[in-house]
Amino acid sequence: MSRTIRGAAVLGAALAGMVAFALPASAHVTVQPTSAAAGGYTTLTFQVPTERDDASTTKLEVQFPTDAPIASVSVEPHTGWTYAVTKTRLAQPIKTDDGSVSEAVSQITWTASSADTAIKPGEFARFNVSAGPLPDKAGTLAFKALQTYSNGDVVRWIDVAQPGQAEPEHPAPAVTLTAASSDTATMHGGSTATGTSTGTSTADTTAASHSSDGTARGLGIAGLVVGVIGIGIGAVAFLAGRRRTTS
Predict the structure, then answer these.
(1) Each residue of 36-52: pLDDT tens digit?
(2) How many helices (H) and strands (E) does the chain have?
C-alpha cells in the first residue's frame, strides 16, 4: 500500500503545482467595463493586483489613446495615493455639446503616498475614472498600463490583443465600443452630460461588471479545484487496483 500512497502523493504534488501555476495567469491589470456604447459616458475602473510575493505595487501609469481621444476625464481620489494628469494638444479638436475641445488626457499616473498604502502581495486596488463622451465610432480603446513595484520592477501591460489570436502575455486593458443605440443618443443629449441623473446607473453597471467578473473567476477556480480532486481520487483508485492485481 505504501507504493500506492507514494504514487498518489507525487501525483497530488504535481497537480497542486499545475493549480498554483494556472491561478496567477488571470491576475492582470484590467479595466471594467470591458464594453461601452460609443459616444456615451462611463466610469472606467482599473483593477490592479499585486502578483509578486516579495514586493508591493507603488505606482500605476495608464495611457489614454490619443488617436481616439476622450473629451472629458475626471479622476476619483484614491485614499493613500496621489495622481497626476497629463494632457496633450489634439491635431483635430473634438466637437462636443459644450463646444470644441482642443486637448485631451493622454496619461494618468497614480502613486502610493507611502509604503503603508502601497498594494501589498495578495491584495488589489481599483482606481476610478469618469470618462466621456467616448469616441462615437465602434472599435476598441486600449489603455496601455505600467505597473511599478517597490523593488523597482516595472510590468508593462501594453500588448494589444489581436482578433483570432491568443491573449498576449501582458495584455493592455481594453474597452470595446459598441454602436450607440437611440437610447444612448437620448441620454447623451440629456442629463448624461452633466453626470447628475446617470451616476447611480453607471455605478450599478460597474458594480455588476465587477460582480460578474469575480463570479466567473470564482467558478472557474472552483471548477479547476474540483477537477484536480477528481483526478487525484481516480489516480488513487487506479494505483490501488494495480496493487491488488500485482499482489
Answers:
(1) 999 999 999 999 999 99
(2) 3, 12
